[in-house]
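**Sequence, structure tokens**
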Amino acid sequence: MNVYAIDFSDPTVNPLAKFAKVADLMNIFLPLLIIGAAFILLVMLLYGGYLRIIAGDSPENVAKAQKTMTFAILGLIVVIIAFVIVKLITVIFGISSPF
């Protein structure tokens, strides 16, 4: 009796087999998240600059613009720290990383 079966762990047969490990998913999504965070930083800095320009002499509006730009930069710092932590984890556990 012959048994016919398909090996679904082969990436040529099953394209989803490329994502068999969490490290493979991380190698795809992490760069996308970092690029997204950089784009959001740019948008928030431009918005804060716009608020600063239209604030005039109003101290509340100037404070709002400065707070917007400050939180945008703090967000970038959080993303950089998260990247360093993930990079450290990949080095400790020997996971291949695209960086």
In short: The mean pLDDT is 84.
